[in-house]
Amino acid sequence: MERNLPKGCRLLALQVKGDQRGSLIPLERATGVPFDIARVYFIYGTQPGVSRGFHAHYRLRQVAVCVAGSCTMILDNGRDRTELHLDQPDHGIEIGPMIWHEMHDFSADCVVVVLADGPYDEGDYIRDRAEFVELAGIG
Ligand code: TYD
Questions:
Q1: What digits encode the pLDDT tens for the residues 72-103?
Q2: pLDDT score of 4
Q3: Pocket lining: 67 vs ligand 1, CB cutoff 6 Å
Q4: CA-based R_g, the chain, Å
């Protein structure tokens, strides 16, 4: 997996609690989630050929975990785009504020669990990439 992530993004190695019965991954501060979790949402059942995301947040911090199937995530700081193939439930991707993110190539069985440090707030979204690039002030 590409580890050269934009500033504000990190690959989190999640601790797997496994035994002969199977695996379990707990998500909380103590296991490496870098914030208090305020919201959790799942992305699943994405239709073939559909891409999602295409936004950045002013303030929100998130951790995305592909818990089943696979997809591609683009992390973009306004100048550099990093592409990650997500297919491991023990890999968390921290997505900081002011990172344009997109998700592509969803497998039919893909489930992405996202942890967020704040409530849903449409006012925190930047959905226009040109506006994002200008606000990011990098390019
Ligand atoms: P949207 O931002 O379009 O999803 P994606 O980033 O995957 O392209 O969100 C889809 C819908 O879900 C939209 O109507 C907003 C709503 N939504 C909530 O109500 N709460 C949430 O926490 C999120 C993330 C989305």
A1: 999 999 999 999 999 999 999 999 999 999 99
A2: 84
A3: no
A4: 15
DSSP 64-92: EEEEES-EEEEEE-SS-EEEEEE--TTEE
State how far the Cα of 16 lies from the Cα of 11, in Å rounded to an integer. 15
The structure tokens listed for 137 are: 């002030």
CA of 86 to the centre of ligand 1 (A): 20
What CA–CA distances, in Å, run from 5 to 43, 74, 87, 130? 22, 10, 17, 21
Which domains, from first to last, does the chain contain? 9-135 (2.60.120.10)
Cβ of 14 closer than 6 Å to ligand 1, yes or no, is: no
Q: How far is the CA of 20 from the centre of ligand 1 (A)?
A: 37
Tell which one of 39, 43, 52, 113 to mutate to probe ligand 1, the residue whose CB is within 8 A of the most ligand atoms.
52
Compute the mean pLDDT over every residue in the chain, rounded to the nearest whole number.
96
**62 CA to middle of ligand 1, Å?**
14
